[in-house]
Specification:
With about 100 residues, this protein is α+β, with helices and mostly antiparallel strands. Helices cover about 40% and strands about 25% of the residues. It has a domain of about 60 residues: Elongation Factor G (Translational Gtpase), domain 3 (Alpha-Beta Plaits), CATH 3.30.70.
Length: about 100
């Protein structure tokens, strides 16, 4: 990212185009790679319905539930991006962490 205080109006069009394309390329390199583990912090009372949903959908990746440090919460870990997105939309997710 640009961290200088240089105004974009001071840049020539060629330099501006070069900088924006470099930023876009850097953003493309940071997209989903397929090896990430999604950690979702949810209330403990929602964990049963998350497991039932995982079983009903027949998700092809593993799921792991563990106690969280936060009292009354559980961490759901999965590598399936679609299931993680479903849990995030369908349940009250308190926090999301993505590990490479």
């Amino acid at each position: 990212m640009l961290r200088t205080k240089t105004s974009l109006s001071l840049l020539t069009p060629h330099i501006f185009i070069h900088l924006t394309s470099k930023i876009e390329n850097d953003m493309d390199n940071q997209l989903y790679k397929g090896t990430e583990t999604f950690q979702l912090l949810i209330p403990a009372d929602s964990s049963r319905s998350v497991i039932e949903e995982w079983m009903e959908r027949g998700v092809q990746s593993d799921i792991r539930l563990r106690r969280a440090r936060t009292r009354g919460c559980v961490v759901v870990e999965t590598r399936d991006v679609m299931f993680a997105a479903f849990v995030q939309r369908g349940y009250r997710v308190l926090r999301v962490n993505i590990k490479d």
